[in-house]
Amino acid sequence: MRLILCFLVLCLPSLSLAWEGYDSESGSYVEIEDGNLVREGEEIEIYDWETGEYKDVVVESVTTSGSGAEVEVYDWESGEYRVLDMD
């Protein structure tokens, strides 16, 4: 049994997971793809489901709460700050 588990762990490609959230001001669902370092001052890419586009934003702050987090970002394209409630 251990041999099978080791085989599966080593041979299967790692799953790419997204961090899902919601921008209550715009009413848009967003995703932060795996591989983005969500830390203050870092530039990350988000996918905005309302517009169907990827956007580059800068993380202004991250506040964790329970099982989620509130991520404040600055959207260079629109020139606006957004608050994303992430699950």
Fill in the keyword field for this structure.
mainly beta, 11% helix, 1 helix, single chain
Structure commentary:
- By secondary structure, the chain is mainly beta.
- The protein is 11% helix and 53% strand.
- The chain has 1 helix and 6 strands; from the N terminus they run H-E-E-E-E-E-E.
- A 6-stranded antiparallel β-barrel has the order 1-2-3-4-5-6.
- Strand 4 and strand 5 (68-75) form a beta hairpin.
- The longest helix has 10 residues, at 2-11.
- It is globular and about 30 Å long.
Sheet with the most strands: spatial strand order: 1-2-3-4-5-6
- What proportion of the residues form beta strands (DSSP E)? over 45%
How many strand units? 6
Helix coverage percent of residues? 10-25%
Radius of gyration, taken over Cα atoms and rounded to an integer in Å: 16 Å
Q: What is the makeup of the main sheet?
A: 6 strands, antiparallel, barrel
* Oligomeric category: single chain
Shape: globular
The unreliable regions are 3-14
> Structural class given helices, strands, pairing?
mainly beta
Briefly summarize what is shown.
With 87 residues, the chain is mainly beta.
Note the topology.
Blueprint lengths: L1 H10 L6 E6 L4 E6 L9 E6 L4 E13 L2 E8 L4 E7 L1
